[in-house]
Design a protein that fits this description.
binds zinc ion, 5-stranded mixed β-sheet, 40% helix, 587 residues, binds ligand BES, single chain, 9-stranded mixed β-sheet
């Protein structure tokens, strides 16, 4: 049972959908029809998930079917109850989205890099596919699809699918796609805007607005090497293409692993390839997540914990162990930040906890990523990589195109790694709050250098300029995380220079710096904070900035007005996240 969906698998399963979508930018509505094919003939009712979706007509072999929206829930949305399907394996539904559809963000030309054309994109994970089309919106149901998207010329549509024909005629563009590999609904994705593209590898191409294409192509040029390393760990890449779409700055996530077409935030274009770990992460989801899928959002750590594990193994092969261990330390620090917000013994600090009545987006945190990762490293270290690596290959091979619950995974562990299971406290790792004291420890020379500088600074010695210049961006980020809660404003200004931030395009590092500066009463950074909040919609940065603004004495009163000022630019998910943050801080 999926607590986040009205799906009743006993009624049957969707197998394939043939869509036609017509996009109307002026009313911010997508009109759609879908021919739904089921796994077998259905005689009886069928429940589908919808949210803020207008259902227009449902037919079966030309005859109209009756239906009703008979249940409603703040988290789940509405239940579309289709009355008696008369023993058929196909129905057709026509529908239209609402301008407030939670999966869609409609960007005005001013919110794009080029500034001349609008942009529309979808983000379906976790429960948002149901705001675009009626579906069994549970990650336990997989279907294939084909689609035609009709948009105004000269825009181009892309999908997380294989592109087919594109016909431009009479002021419109008809773009066809097909998705031959079965996917769960949360991996349905499309975008439309002024897009150009460039090949950057034998199976990879980058799509971006023309103004950003060259920089993006350079930043991600090493993608094929990443795929090759990932295949060594996980087995063959089955999705044929690994293309990427560079999103407008409002995109709420670092990346989204939409199959065949990963969506990426432009904040990872730094000009020095220092944040391409996001690409490695989304690529790794091609196996853990897209191929072996969490059965419900309560099992989200199976997607993210495994993916972080693979991300760090791949980065270890590409950049060395020192660097990946440093990433592990930074990741764990970030996880503790999230745990403290929840409270160290709160439910969301568990790998698996009940999410009934809760929206996955609201309880999602770096716990799933980093506690999940540490758990897998604990297993790896118990049996050694000689045993763990073949286990991984076999796990992917045997579970591909299936969904797993945490309990299925535990059963799989018991069967295939019985010795490890005997020597690890699974219950504590998975079902207990907080963080196990005997968790794996990470060490790295890169880390020690930062720790020495932080200790020195705490003892009154300023860090050595030459050392800091040679540091990697990750070391700089850790330094900013580790220095004491408040430092004199003058030191803050100095760190900015010493860390080379004035010339840096690295928004992640800039955010880390701004957080330190706000905490340190460095009042003069406000224009820079505003500049970032005005132009970057990535939730991770925006939420952290608002949280720190709202919890620091001098900036407390500025948090709410700043949010009101920029709110409209953010994706609804980020708006909801910041609203929670401000409520928690009591401003
Ligand atoms: N699948 C996630 C993004 C996501 C999670 C969307 C939950 C909706 C609900 C994606 O793979 C991810 O984890 N992105 C990270 C980047 C990564 C390098 C940790 C992000 O957006 O920060
Ligand atoms: Zn992820």
């Amino acid at each position: 049972m999926d607590p986040h969906s009205y799906t009743d698998l006993k009624q049957g399963r969707i197998k394939h959908i043939s869509f036609i979508f017509s996009v109307d930018f002026s009313s911010e509505v997508v009109h759609g029809t879908g021919v739904y094919r089921f796994e077998r003939q259905i005689a009886g009712p069928m429940f589908l998930d919808v949210r803020d979706l207008e259902v227009i007509r449902i037919t079966c072999e030309g005859d109209e079917l009756t239906w009703v929206l008979d249940e409603e829930d703040e988290v789940k949305g509405e239940r579309l109850h289709i009355h008696n399907i008369p023993g058929a394996d196909e129905i057709e539904i026509s529908f239209k989205t609402s301008p407030g559809a939670s999966a869609l963000q409609w960007l005005k030309p001013a919110q794009t890099v080029g500034g001349e054309h609008p942009f529309l994109y979808s983000q379906c994970q976790s429960l948002h596919a149901r705001s675009i089309f009626p579906c069994q919106d549970s990650p336990a149901v997989r279907f294939t699809y084909d689609a035609e998207i009709i948009i105004p010329d000269p825009l181009t549509a892309v999908m997380a699918a294989a592109p087919g024909e594109l016909i431009r005629q009479d002021g419109t563009a008809r773009c066809r796609f097909s998705m031959p590999q079965p996917i769960p609904s949360y991996l349905f994705a499309f975008a439309a805007g002024n897009l150009s593209s460039q090949d950057i590898g034998p199976r990879s191409r980058i799509y971006a607005e023309p103004e950003s294409l060259e920089a993006a192509a350079w930043e991600f040029a090493q993608v094929e090497a990443m795929i090759v390393e990932a295949e060594k760990l996980y087995g063959p890449y089955v999705w044929e293409r690994f293309d990427m779409l560079l999103m407008p700055p409002a995109f709420p996530y670092g990346g989204m692993e939409n199959p065949r077409l990963t969506f990426l935030t432009p904040t990872i274009i730094t000009g020095d390839r220092s944040l391409t770990s996001v690409v490695v992460h989304e690529l790794a989801h091609s196996w853990t997540g897209n191929l072996v899928t969490n059965a419900t959002w309560e099992d989200f750590w199976l997607n993210e914990g495994w993916t972080v594990y693979a991300e760090r193994r791949i980065l270890e092969m590409l950049n060395g162990r020192e660097s990946s261990e440093l990433d592990s330390v930074i990741g764990r620090n970030n996880m503790f930040t999230d745990m403290k917000v929840f409270g160290m013994d709160a439910d969301p600090t568990c790998l698996k906890f009940s999410q009934a009545g809760k929206h996955p987006d609201a309880v999602m945190s770096r716990v799933a990523y980093e506690k999940g990762y540490s758990f897998l490293v604990a297993l790896e270290r118990l049996v050694g990589r000689e045993a763990f690596d073949p286990f991984i290959l076999r796990y992917i091979e045997e579970q591909q195109f299936q969904s797993l619950t945490t309990e299925d995974f535990i059963a799989y562990l018991n069967k295939h790694l019985p010795d490890a299971v005997k020597r690890i406290d699974l219950d504590t790792w998975i079902y207990a709050p907080g963080f196990p004291e005997d968790a794996p420890v990470f060490s790295s020379g890169l880390l020690e250098a930062v720790e020495r500088a932080v200790e020195g600074y705490s003892a009154g010695h300023l860090p050595n300029e030459q050392d800091l210049k040679r540091w990697t961006p990750a070391q700089k980020e850790l330094f900013l995380q580790l220095i004491p809660g408040t430092v004199p404003a003058a030191d803050c200004r100095m760190f900015k220079v010493l860390l080379g931030l004035e010339a840096s395009q690295n928004k992640q590092l800039l955010t880390a710096y701004l957080l330190t500066a706000i905490r340190s009463d460095c009042v003069e950074v406000i224009p820079e904070v505003e500049e970032l909040l005005a132009h970057v919609g990535r939730g991770l940065f925006v939420r952290a900035l608002f949280r720190t603004l709202a919890s620091t004495e001098w900036s407390r009163d500025q948090a709410r007005p700043l949010f009101e000022k920029f709110k409209e630019r953010y994706h609804p998910i980020v708006q909801a996240g910041v609203t929670r943050v401000l409520e928690q801080a009591g401003v």
